[in-house]
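Example record

Each entry pairs one chain with its bound ligand, pyridoxal-5'-phosphate.
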Amino acid sequence: MSIDSDRNLTSNALHQRTRTVRAGVEDDQHYGAVIPPLHLSTTYSFAGFAQPRKHDYSRSGNPTRDLLAQALADLEQGVGATVTATGMAAITTVLQLLQPGDLMLAPADCYGGSWRLLDALSRRNAFRLQWVNFRDPADWQPALRQNPRMLWLETPSNPLLRITDIAHVAAARPPGCVLVVDNTFLSPVLQNPLALGADIVVHSTTKYINGHSDVVGGAIISASTELAEQLAWWANCLGVTGSAFDSWLTLRGLRTLPLRMQQHQVTAQCVAEFLQSHAAINKVHYPGLASHPEHALAQTQQRGFGAIISFELLGGESEVAAMLEHLQHISLAESLGGVESLICHPATMTHAAMTTSARQRAGISAGLIRLSVGLEHADDLINDLQQALTQCTAGKQQQPAGQAAARVQKKTGKLSEVSHELL
Ligand SMILES: Cc1ncc(COP(=O)(O)O)c(C=O)c1O
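Structure tokens for the complex follow.
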């Protein structure tokens, strides 16, 4: 399991890291600009009557957006991609493939915004929806007899980091049924669902792909030309394509994605091990921990464990509030995947749109906290978490401050191959 094990060694293909850095570089035909220019023009002149050039109107096609789409299609091993204005716009576009009466199976424990959209559209009869648990074949496989048209996976899931076996679901789907995977939590650097048999990948590029918490965006990558064309048609028709400036910024962020993911997850492993060792924490959900139920699956399906951790604090909302308010270097905010660490309380923030019973079914408790581990030094993050935990559990347990990451390393012996400089 290595972040760099993306290259098919029998081919001459470049490593993903090289392709990411070089995406669109030296594309400029006019001036030889090394970094691709930003094309803000909304419209393009026709070469003559009835002679459109490659682009005619920026909603339908834009050279800057096209470069980002090509880079993402390449990294996800797809044949084509559509860049959208938000992650939800990408999801909305994919849902256009369904007709009224079509059945869709979706995970009951997905991102709250996805849950809200699927729930709302199915209530308006845009399609039929069945919430399932894709980690339990007895729960979802009987529904295959009803001939579903779409299976929706989110793996790892938001916020509980549950992992679904993509290849297993892909092999089981009936003919004509489209398998869609939301790959936001890992990015194409750590997982390629199309290579595992999925038909479509969606991303909130707002997260790791852009990586700097300054662009909201989305993308859809397809395994077949037919799907790629249909989805590009719908994105143009709905008017949900991404802006040129956002695409330019996202392409800039993308160039460092492999390096960011590498560091994010080294730090996340340290933080997860620290949290697991803390007496105020009931449970830690992180695929990189041996205690995670799908740790073995994550090792084969993914090229890394990612950098989102969720954990359950002993007590309830008041302990959560006390802890979150005492953090000094981790921001209490929605979103994830940026260079800065963000922490949130899913029940009242990212998953507040779900009904109470839907949250209960998903396993999102009042004590659950989600942490997006950024690129700060691991010691600083651990010390900050430690002092905040101490504040909300005064008297329960005190751990000495200091080189906390090094202490976790010594205690578990698992991080010995990691250079302390990287932490
Ligand atoms: C897994 C997942 N998918 C989709 C989205 C929606 O993306 P956006 O906020 O860019 O619309 C999010 C947002 O948090 C998410 O976490």
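Residues 86-88, 111, 113-114, 154, 158, 182, 184, 204, 206, 216, 218 surround pyridoxal-5'-phosphate (CB under 6 Å).
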